[in-house]
Request: fold
Amino acid sequence: MKQVTVRLFAVFRDAIGVNEIDLQTGAHTAKDLYAELCRDHRGLHHEPNALVAINETISDWNDVIDDGDVILLFPPVAGG
Amino acid sequence: MSFSISDSDIDRTALRKHLLNRSCGAFVSFEGWIRDHNDGREVLRLEYEVYRPLAVSEGERILAEALQRFEIADAACIHREGLLELGDTAVIAAAVAAHRDEAFKACRYIIDEVKHRLPIWKREHYGNGEAHWVNCQKTVEDAKAQS
Reply:
């Protein structure tokens, strides 16, 4: 198991009601972690255009997460 | 080259001055304004949430890409955060070049990439008192199902 911190923004934060979660996870990739969070938190949905950043770097959903990582879950962006 | 996030009105005169260049004959800019409707709904105001650390680094990357891809001398972009009212400028992107064609292309590239890549979210406030985050498919579907 890994200990990670997940930060949530905009609609994701509103769905769960907190902007940060510390959790123990067996998730291998960022995609696995997102799926786990959607399973465990009613109101958090899979958004096809969501983005992920690991330790302040925009990352791929298939990137592996490590113990101590900070994962930023970005809902579909809407700048401009 | 400069990218920034602003929590107050965008100073377009300062931006133009920043880009002024004697070797350039073309200045092209795009402004995104807050309009009073979206998807058939009356919009009263917009709220922008920005994750600044990555918005700024990714914004700077986009400007650097524009400088590499197009024959421009310089480029800049400013995006607002916070609560904006109708008619306010949400974003301004600009490029200067010797000739207009490259400046138009670069400006288009910058605003398109800014909209797709920057960690920025907008929440629309509607005439009926509701407010929804834009672009979140499932959330929008849920909202429609509940209405």
About this structure: The interface with chain B takes residues 9-11, 14-15, 45-49, 51, 53, 56, 58, 72, 74-80 of chain A (CB under 8 Å). Residues 2-74 of chain A form a domain with the Ubiquitin-like (UB roll) fold (CATH 3.10.20.30). The longest helix of chain A spans residues 30-40. The mean pLDDT of chain A is 95.
